[in-house]
Amino acid sequence: MQYGRYPPGLAARRDHCNKPLTVTHALDCKRYGLVNRRHNELRDTFAELIGMAWGAAGVRREVVLQEGTKGEDGVRADIVPRSVWERQAAASYDVCITDADAPSYASKNRSIKSILKGHENSKKNKYREAIRDSHMSFTPLVVTCDRVWGHDANVIIAHMARALMEKEGWTGREFGYVSGWIRSRPSIALVRATSYCLRGGGRAFGALGCDGGAGSISLPPNCVFMGLDS
């Protein structure tokens, strides 16, 4: 997908809804909860990483920021930690995974950058009133199915890397190494979850987990991931 190729070996039809199984349908079909699982997989991975950087005790998930009224849905944040930007101050995050190759975007000839920016602005407009009432900051974590991150997600990843570099076990490591390790965790989670959407499956994903120190992924000492390294 990342290189514009059609995934081989897909079934002719989706088991859960019996519709023709195209890539677009597989990534968007909400039957059987696969899309929700993909979202939750990325949410949980980010929550664990944020907990590593600023303390797991202060991290909450699925927090209602504003109750719904007159039959309308309320506003809920995926992750609400403390002390990310200011000591003891709450911050809120909401995950958004988008298929940038969907026909609706292709027909309008939109760039990936504009798609990501559009989702970021949409999230900010949705949450503006709720975070004003809650007195907290808000950051949308927007990413495409093939792992292109929005600007705001890149900012928090860089901020997270700098926070981890001050933790025991991370001191002395270069920024590129730490930010590369951080990026690898949600990237793996997203690849795995997207594969489930394409190929189905009834089993739970199972959390990858984020161990302390170098974690469960071993990177070469001089490894520097391309991306936001300054």
Describe the 3D structure.
The longest helix is centred in the last third of the chain and has 25 residues, at 175-199. This protein is α+β, with helices and mostly antiparallel strands and 230 residues long. The strands form two sheets. Strands 1-2 form a two-stranded antiparallel ribbon. It has a two-stranded parallel ribbon with strand order 3-4. It starts with 22 loop residues before the first helix and ends in a 31-residue tail after the last helix. It has one domain. The model is unreliable at 212-230 (pLDDT under 50). The chain contains six helices and four strands, in the order H-H-E-E-E-H-H-E-H-H.
What features would you highlight for this structure?
alpha+beta; two-stranded antiparallel sheet; two-stranded parallel ribbon; 6 helices; 4 strands; 40% helix; globular
